[in-house]
Amino acid sequence: MLTALKGNIIEALSPNSLGLHPNSFLVLEDGRVAGIYAQLPQAMKEAQVTDFGDALILQSFADMHLHGPQYEFTGTGMDRPLLAWLETYAFPAEARYADPAYARERYRQLSRDLIQNGTTRVSMFSSLHTDATLILMEELEKAGVTGYVGKVNMDRNAPAYLCETTEQSKAETLRWLDACRRFTKIKPILTPRFAPSCTEELLAFLGKVKAERDLPVQSHLSENVGEIALVAELFPDCGQYWQVYDKFGLFDGKTLMAHCVHSDERERAALLERGVRPVHCASSNNALMSGISPAAELLREGQGVCLGSDVAGGTTLSMLATMANSICASKDRGVMKNDPSQALSIEAAYYMATSAGQTFLGAKPGFGAGERLHAVVLDDTHLPMLPGMSLRDRLLRAVYRLDDRHIRAVYSEGVRRI
Ligand code: GUN
Ligand code: FE
Q: Label partner for 63 (CA 20 to 30 A): which of 124, 313, 332, 364?
């Protein structure tokens, strides 16, 4: 069946270029993108058109790093650096997900809130609990969120109430991988919490499972100076942090590494060479006082940087706010380094929030032909239209001034969810 959305369509084609289609038709065949046209072609005249008037039609968002069980305390406990913050706030919250009924309720709310905010693609950390992780996958899939979820592995440097033995961690990972075959839109991603949480034996096991089952991996890298010092102490034979993951086969083109705030030239060269994707988490880098990421430099080097809310180190689930935070942080870095080229453009921020994550998840960038529609319709028509205002100007303003209250429609996998 042919359908179409009509409005001001904006695509993220590359970190430097937007596809702008004012007052155009985004035509779908059975929910898949057929093309974008200024006028409906003769052969498509029978398409059922949903007219969004002067609203903006964007790609929906890909939040490529967040922690499901931390969502409940978003915006609280922002007074400690990473390692103390984990002990004080994150671990006690995650421990509550031992209770499946509790997990069900919280994860249903999270799934709804993601769609409400226009996020239809994720790569998410769960907690170490297998049953709660399966509940999270189920609730996300029901709500229309797609992507990856990982059962967290952590067999050391964690409190007794939130720690697995190495044997438990291995066995539960296999039980989880078997049980999650039933999901079609949410897939498993191996998730060693970060190097300090895992013994070498556990990392070696995960590397073996990754190789045998061809699975993706997500973790944290060079987020905070205290963390980096701890890694050096725990893994004295690894010259740099990234080499811990690399040593165990957990560092390749199917890997997401959150933060990379303090990655030096050598670490960055390794990321680029292996095709590992850094995930920029500006809000969390600010809130946990981790530092200011060189995101614009990473992009310039050709790294496939994605964006993450990193809830609840980050203070918001909104990817509009996450884009704004990324642009602001990059300008602070530009001031500190006396280098205006550190500033992220709206092209870069929109690309990182959408197409970068899409491509990691196997889809084409932009509104790629043949792909199932993932889109969000943003209504900015209550704001003044200034003389000569372009669609690019409106996208930038939307990032700074709009939120979930201005979302008129959300499509995921070709299905309208709002
Ligand atoms: N490093 C290890 N665990 C975490 C976490 O939960 N949040 C953040 N921001 N960094 C981490
Ligand atoms: Fe994180």
A: 332
